[in-house]
Amino acid sequence: MPQNKRFLTILCLVVSLIFLVSISTISAENLTITKESSNEILVINTERPVTFDLKIKNSGPDANFELYNILGFTMEPNKIFIETGETKKVELKLEPLGTIKERGFYTISYYIKRSDTEQEQHSLTFKIVELKDVFTIGSGYLDPESTAVEVFIKNTANVDFGIIHAEFDSQFFNFERDFDLGPYETETFDISVDSESLRGMLAGFYSISAKIKAGNEIADVDGTMRFIEKNIVTTTDNEFGFLVNTQVIEKSNEGNVVQETETIVKKNVIPRLFTSFSPEPDTVERRGGTVFYTWVREVKPGEVLQIKVKTNWLFPFIIILFLAIIVVMTKKYTRTDLMLRKRVSFVRTKGGEFALKVTVFVSSKKYLERINVTDRLPPLVEVHERFGGEQPSKIDKKNKKIEWAFEKLEAGERRTLSYIIYSKVGILGRFALPSATAIYEKEGIIHEAESNRAFFVTEQKAQKEDEE
Q1: Where are the beta strands (DSSP E) in 215-253?
Q2: How many CB atoms lie within 10 A of CB 407?
Q3: Residue-wise over 167-201: b if at least 16 C-beta within 10 A, else e?
Q4: Spatial distance between the Cα atoms of 406 and 129, rounded to a whole number of angstroms
Q5: Is the peptide bond before 316 cis (omega within 30 degrees of 0)?
Q6: Coil, strand or helix: which one is 335?
Q7: Nearest 5°: phi and psi at 169?
Q8: In what helix (H) or strand (E) does residue 7 lie, and over which residues does it extend?
Q9: DSSP 3-state of 61
Q10: What is the spatial distance between Cα 9 and Cα 15, in angstroms, rounded to a whole number?
């Protein structure tokens, strides 16, 4: 008898288990859930739930269904009634009860309960993002001659924020607005721009920032705007004075692009002897009895290039002084047995560092012995390890000196010494290189020689060589 009772007990448990499994299977087959929406996003701390559009079909008997989860999200609706054979559209909203740390795609499991004993487990996947990841800001092209620009903000998510507040800021404007922004919508604003604030600004891309508030969340969003190129250069030429004649030429860049300008002034042979320039011309060319002075300069937006040409007839002794200088220089040249001439040129590098090629030409007029040429490096630069022409005999990096030694030089012999200097620090303005020096022996007597000083003028987009 005890064995029969034990057998009956086991049989009852097996039958009950089979019954429960069959009930669950029938329940799952009687309820069909289809998600019609897509790209669901939850933006944290904005009081905006993530919403799913569901279609629920009940193939079983009429019933009330309860929806719930155990992961800390509120669900609305949490109860629905569906008749037999009915397909009901449900807008299901989920919202976290507290702070949620997850970011990116997130899957939540929830349950649908038909009665005390029947329930099904389902899941929904959505993306959790921060407020700053939802918006894109920018503007239309800004013209230096315009008085307004179009600024926009775009909602890139399937989220209806309702009324939001945004504060926009840039170098050209700042303003704030309250506006409604639905899913995937773009709001535009026509903003006035003060034309005076555009003067001196270079064409290119500028940043825009916006502080956006939706619900209790505040986000900082960055964008860009393009200030389009405009070439506007005006020229004025004024001349006054008789004994001291002054010509003033002005070139004003009223656009927003760095402009290269060319100015040419003509002078006859005699007047040019009494003429001074400010600034000095870049090139001087003589054609017959006329001398052409040329300035090629870059003018930045908002800048005015002023060239003054002053002819002073009160000081004719300038001619005598000029001739005296020529005589002195000629005598110095004829007495020099070793000539040093220094030249510098710009070198383009792949890394964009400032680099110059320095060349020293050594020319011997007579037979010389034991020649030592020394060149010093200016501050802020380093010498490249590769050399052109004659190889140096000594490199003193600590004291920034390079030396070349030659046992002898024949009359008329010429040597070329070259090296490259570079600096990782950008250099603007007039860059001066010291003179190269030489010590040599002629007929048992020690002599010295010195080269010219080399200069290099750097500007934003142009480099040019200058020698003295």
Answers
A1: 217-227, 233-240, 244-253
A2: 7
A3: ebebebbeeeeeeebeeeeebebebebeeeebeeb
A4: 74
A5: no
A6: helix
A7: -145, 140
A8: helix 2-30
A9: coil
A10: 10
Amino acid at 461: K
Q: How far apart are CA 243 and CA 12, in angstroms?
A: 131
Tens-digit pLDDT string for the chain (468 aa): 444 445 444 443 433 333 333 333 334 457 788 888 888 888 887 777 888 888 888 888 888 888 888 878 888 888 888 888 888 888 888 888 877 788 888 888 888 887 656 778 888 888 888 888 888 888 887 877 777 888 999 888 888 888 889 999 888 888 889 988 888 888 888 888 877 777 767 777 888 888 888 877 888 888 888 887 666 777 888 888 777 888 888 887 766 677 778 888 888 877 777 788 888 888 888 888 788 888 888 887 777 888 888 888 777 666 677 778 887 777 666 667 888 899 988 888 777 778 888 999 998 988 989 999 999 888 878 888 888 778 898 988 888 899 999 999 888 889 999 898 888 776 667 778 889 999 998 888 888 888 888 888 775 443 444 444
Domains within the chain, CATH numbers bracketed? 2-129 (2.60.40.10), 131-227 (2.60.40.10), 233-318 (no CATH), 337-467 (2.60.40.1530)
HSE (side-chain half, CA atoms, 13 Å) at 122:
17
For the record, the structure tokens of 347 come out as 């070198």
User: Cis bond leading into 279, ω under 30°?
Assistant: yes
The β-bridge relationship of strands 41-43 and 119-129 is parallel
Q: Up-side HSE of residue 363: CA atoms within 13 Å toward CB?
A: 11
pTM: 0.45
Burial classification of residue 129, based on how many CB atoms lie within 10 Å of its CB (0-12 exposed, 13-18 middle, 19 or more buried): middle
> Would you list the DSSP string of 390-440?
SPPSEEETTTTEEEEEEEEE-TT-EEEEEEEEEESS---EEEEEPPPEEEE
Of 413, 416, 414, 391, nearest to 404 (Cα)?
391
C-alpha dist (Å) from residue 121 to 17, 28, 82, 114: 19, 9, 18, 12
Residue 341: CB atoms within 10 A of its CB come to 14
